[in-house]
Write a structure and sequence with these properties.
The protein has helices spanning about 335-360, 365-370, 380-385; strands spanning about 1-5, 10-15, 20-25, 30-35, 40-45, 55, 60-65, 70-75, 80-85, 95-100, 105-110, 115-120, 125-130, 135-140, 145-150, 155-160, 165-170, 175-180, 190-195, 195-200, 205-215, 225-230, 235-240, 240-245, 250-255, 270, 275-285, 285-295, 300, 310-315, 320-325, 330-335. The chain has a single domain, classed as YVTN repeat-like/Quinoprotein amine dehydrogenase (Methylamine Dehydrogenase, Chain H, 7 Propeller). The protein is mainly beta. The radius of gyration is 22 Å and the shape is globular. The strands form eight sheets. It has a four-stranded antiparallel sheet with strand order 1-32-31-30. A four-stranded antiparallel sheet has the order 2-3-4-5, with no helix packed on it. A four-stranded antiparallel sheet has the order 6-7-8-9, with no helix packed on it.
């Protein structure tokens, strides 16, 4: 693990497409870590808190909120920060979500008063629309044609990304929407809400294809975070337990997680880019991070974490970047975790084979019977697919 002390609370962590890590702070500074040269630099842009950051698709610029007065765009090549005004978002409001379109031509922002603006990074606002409730998240579709927004009124709205026209309003949650995720082909949208439900939407029809209701046990924390696997075949949900659920509604596995309930920034659960690993924030006497295999095997506990930490995998899956209340930017070597899976898989295979031999049964018949009975087969981990019980 590598660390860099920023000295003030870190509010956002994001990897660029080319693998550089940037973090933002409550004091308005940006901190960048470069994987190739292990260098960190800081850029003090203004005195206000940076709430959210987003990279341009070419990794050449970083956009960030400027406490409601617009957005800042830092060009790494010129080392210049330019400000773009955002129409109809008052200076008294706070921008809570920023997302750069994959074609690089537009930046979407959402604020706490229900305004959503689309900005041309070259010369400012294109259009601004309003909705009921505070905007909790905005996310572009993979082809940059549509913009999805989640709100505290429980609605998800799909906007035309070029004109700002409202195309459809998706109604299916009774509590604030806290997360939205597009499938890679743009045909599906996953959403999660504080009402304890996770929905999978079919965009062509604007209907819910599947609703998953996660019922908390007495005294258990409510739904904290949801993360869809990269292929949208399953999702991980965090309460006081970690659930991994398939899109057919079957529970693949669940684990107890001692999580901290921090409502203004709840604990996170995040998939690696390949969907083979899952990182989760937890708490015992001190905060730490647990990394699971896709099939639910705990691989390691990463110490040194802090409260209200933001987690993000690098695009190539080699690193996990994190930062939070203690102002320390941490970079964990996830490649070492993947390498550690090899001996674990061999050990599991050896134990399973030994059990079959001791039982005096034919090896393949024994393996098949134990697979049907729900035993973990190492082949599931090797293939990256979860073993359903």
């Amino acid at each position: 693990m590598e660390t860099f002390a920023a000295g003030t609370e870190l509010t956002s962590v994001d990897w660029s497409p080319d693998g550089s890590l940037v973090a933002s702070s409550r004091q308005g500074a940006l901190y960048r870590w470069e994987a190739a040269e292990r260098l960190v630099w800081s850029k003090n842009n203004h005195t206000s808190t940076i709430q959210d950051i987003t990279w341009s698709p070419d990794s050449g610029s970083i956009a960030f909120d400027t406490a409601g007065r617009g957005i800042g765009i830092y060009n790494l090549g010129t080392d210049i920060v330019e400000t773009r005004s955002v129409e109809r978002i008052p200076s008294s409001s706070r921008i809570v979500s920023v997302d750069w379109s994959s074609d690089g031509t537009r930046i979407a922002v959402g604020d706490e008063k229900g305004n959503i603006a689309v900005v041309d990074p070259r010369d400012g606002s294109l259009f601004t629309v309003s909705q009921r409730g505070e905007v909790r998240c905005v996310e572009w579709s993979p082809d940059s044609s549509y913009l999805a927004s989640g709100s505290t009124d429980g609605m998800i709205r799909i906007w035309d990304g070029h004109t700002g026209s409202l195309l459809t309003a998706l109604s299916g949650h009774t509590g604030p929407v806290v997360g939205i995720t597009w499938s890679s082909d743009g045909k599906w949208l996953g959403s999660s809400s504080l009402d304890g439900t996770v929905n999978l939407w079919q965009i062509s029809t604007g209907t819910v294809a599947k609703t998953f209701r996660l019922v908390a046990r007495p005294g258990e924390a409510p739904l904290q975070d949801v993360s869809w696997s990269p292929d949208m075949s399953c999702f991980a949900a965090l309460t006081s337990r970690l659930f991994v659920v398939g899109v057919d509604g079957s529970e693949m596995w669940t684990r107890d997680i001692p999580a901290v309930v921090v409502f203004n920034r709840p604990p996170q659960v995040v998939w690696s880019p390949t969907g083979s690993l899952l990182a989760v924030e937890a708490w015992s006497r001190d905060p730490y991070m647990v990394v699971f295999s896709r099939s639910g095997q705990p691989l390691c506990n990463l110490t040194g974490a802090c409260l209200r930490e933001v987690l993000e995998w690098s695009p190539d899956g080699r690193y996990i970047g994190s930062g939070g209340d203690d102002g320390v930017l941490r970079i964990y070597d996830a490649e070492a975790i993947s390498e550690a899976m090899g001996p674990i898989i061999l050990l599991l295979i050896s134990l399973l084979v030994l059990r079959c031999v001791v039982a005096g049964q034919g090896l393949w018949a024994c393996l098949a019977r134990r697979s049907r009975g729900g035993a973990f087969l190492a082949g599931c981990a090797i293939s990256g697919r979860g073993c359903r019980k």
